[in-house]
Design brief:
Length: 156
Amino acid sequence: MYIENTIVVRGDWPTVWELSSDIAKWPERLPHYRKVIIQSTSPGGQIKHAYMSCWRDFFPVSWHTIQRLEFSPDPAAARVFYNHVKGVTKGMEVIWKFEPLEDGVYRVTISHDWNPRWPLIGKLASRLISLNIVHNIADKTLKQVKLLAATEPVTV
């Protein structure tokens, strides 16, 4: 299963990066996120192991992930990586990419790549989960990042 969500975001680069990468603050910033619990962080803070939980409309969804940050002052070189390590989506790899379009405008893309570990129902499960849950949550996340980035800069 491979799926992408993309949106054009207007805002200054530090704000776009902060909104996209600071998962500890997502429950305050993104209404569909119920909680994010950082379970461990590397000494430099670039790697975090986290429990994440959100709503897919009325349905609760949760997973454990390892987040790896690759910040760059050049947005085109910056990345946020996730590897789902526990839960239904174990093995899912997620990448946030940032493409500068013009000064203060970025195309932000979240890609999800997953090969479910259930051989008999894997294709059906990945299709249902990718279209009905993953795509929906990523879309809500991007729309809120866009709204917040345009509203006011985040204090880093």
